[in-house]
Design goal:
mainly alpha
């Protein structure tokens, strides 16, 4: 029997419900990319991307939130949805704004830096 809830971050971090949902969100977004693009046209897409940035940055402003199991059970899927909204908006850019160039460079080498 798989537990869907845990009382500590150590327990919840390894649960399949903590990360599998985020992978499913990413896969569903990829499969429905054209439909999502149509839904996020113009100002609606820009607004969704701005809200998504705020949601993703939010936990960084609350240092103790990393000790809450709900961050991994609810925050993970929320951040996955927000990442999809941001990626769909950024995908439209013809070039990277100058202020974001360092982040783009980090994104290009992030996996190698992670390793």
């Amino acid at each position: 029997m798989i537990r869907l809830h845990a009382d500590s971050v150590v327990q919840v971090y390894g649960l399949p419900t903590s990360w599998a949902i985020t992978l499913l969100i990413g896969a569903a977004a990829r499969l429905n990319r054209d439909r999502l693009r149509r839904a996020l046209i113009g100002r609606r897409g820009q607004f969704a991307a701005i809200v998504a940035c705020a949601v993703v940055a939010g936990p960084t402003l609350l240092p103790d939130v990393k000790d809450e199991p709900m961050l991994y059970q609810v925050g993970g899927p929320d951040i996955a949805v927000c990442s999809v909204a941001m990626a769909l908006q950024v995908e439209k850019w013809s070039r990277t704004p100058i202020l974001l160039t360092p982040f783009r460079a980090l994104g290009l080498i992030s996996y190698a830096a992670y390793l």
